[in-house]
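Continued from yesterday's entry.
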Amino acid sequence: MALYYNLKTNFSDNMITHFQKEICDAIKNNTPLKDSDLGIIKVSFYDKEEFLFDSNYLFFKDFIDKHSLFFEYHIRNDNDEKKIEIIKNRTGGLLASQLKNYKYLTDISKSISLYKTKNTCSR
């Protein structure tokens, strides 16, 4: 129950932009999702060899598998960035308040926790 409370209260009113569009649509429409169907793609960005930041993306595992995507990428140059174009082009927008009010939030609590943890990727 503490995890559920944390999930419901530990969001700002910002826009969430790193969820796959179809996941955003499911959340907005209160369509059931399960942790077992979701995966985190971690992308680490560098300026040459200097680490800049991590971004996590929440995607359906079926989509990840279908497109032979990895669960972790290290972007150091323009060629590396081309590898994640499909990820960047498939994200949608979701208000944090929409996620907080999602009827099935507890069913995806593990995925949301991993999404919020910048040093983690999952399969």
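--- second protein ---
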Amino acid sequence: MATRNRIKQAALELFVTKGIIGTSVRDIATLAEIAEGGLYRHYASKEDLAWKLFSENYASLAKELHDLAKAKGDFASRLGAMIHRFCRFFDEEPLMFRFLLLTQHQELPKLRAKSQSPVQVLHKLVTEARKQGQVEIADVDLATAQILGLILQPATFMVYGLLAPGMQRVEAETLAACLKVADSTNHAVMPVLGTGIHESVGTRKKVVDGRAKPGHDDRKIRMSGK
């Protein structure tokens, strides 16, 4: 087990710094301080090692997020718990986070269709929140994509040195931005077609030629971007 762990740690470091293609079995064996043949006692190939590193840790993260999503609480508290775990993962396991991020496009297609993923967990959370009336979302797929982007992009910027590191540092702002998208307060902002004006779903008013119909309270109509 100790040898296997050394192999995994060496591979993780090299895959992140050199890429899977740029890393050789000899590189991994040298860093793990084993003979090249020793790696093949545990893994069929370098690609097999990369796949197992990805699939095992991706599934583990998905399971943790699933458990948090199924816990008691409203949408905001459960989403907040998921974001907190994600931020801790980024800060406490930077190599593994970078590995999953940088290799996902290569490895994700290999996952079985029914395999649980963080994306599926988030999608289910948003779907259930809408069914329970906690959010007013017209398009669950779009909302899931937007929330995921708000979580992942700051982390991606940090990986590439475009944003100061520390996901827990921006955890509160990330959650607040996600809740604006999901509108957990039941006051989603919906665009009025053909205008730059938005209206509150909870106090939706009829609009005629881009203007609120006379007699309605215009104070609850907000300009786009305000």
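The longest helix spans residues 46-69. The chain has three domains: 1-43, 48-186, 187-226. Will compare against the first tomorrow.
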